[in-house]
Amino acid sequence: MALKVISNEKFREITESVHSYATKGDYQKIFPVLKPTLDAKCSFTKLDRMGKMLGDSAQAHPSDLYPLLEEIISYNAMGGYVVVAQALVSLLAVDFDQAMKLSQNYISRGATWYVCDILGERVIGQALHRHFDQTLPWLKRCLSNKDNWVRRSGGVAVHLFVKRNKTGERRIKSILQILEPHIEEKQIDVVKGIGWGLKTIGRHHPDLMDNFLRLQFRQKKRLSGLMVSKATTYFGKPRRAALERYVRALPA
User: Fold this and answer.
1) What is residue 2's predicted lDDT score, i.e. its pLDDT?
2) Per the confidence metrics, is the pTM higher than 0.85?
């Protein structure tokens, strides 16, 4: 059954109540007020604003907010993941490690593509964007995680970072070094995530991606066809043809 669209008037009413409780630190009273928003069809833009408001309200005492985030996650509504993700983004500046730990935990528990992509872009991707050096070790942990969805989130995060940072080759090279050990990944959901990151790098840094792929082929890496296809999505026909000729010319 299709979800009912929540009206702007009703959303404003809910937002005002949530803001009032959050300002007072009465987080235990918020979920029943917020629940109608999670049960209705509501734009991600509005849900992002709601999550940011919650995260901003807990800057001084972030741990006070975590029981509410757990309650929202346990309800398992798509919109709830957006609210929680944006709240965690607001908390990156004051409780970075915990925000990253929770994002990985929620991705693993959500165990589906949209949970991974919502949290991967908003939390891990924004962490790379705002706190690059601090996030790199966490990106490595994501890509090495046993959980397929957490591994996928690493590629999703790279996509967001490159989209927001189209210049700066030094950082892109650092990311490619982290992705390289996972370039032979075969699990389809993870391949799609890493491939998404490579695709965006290839769009804005085609020379770096071309050189990166040639290095993998020289080292006889066994890349999946889907991984290569995504990485070369934005290559023109001449560049793609040249890469194919290069591969054919390599010693068997």
Assistant:
1) 60
2) yes
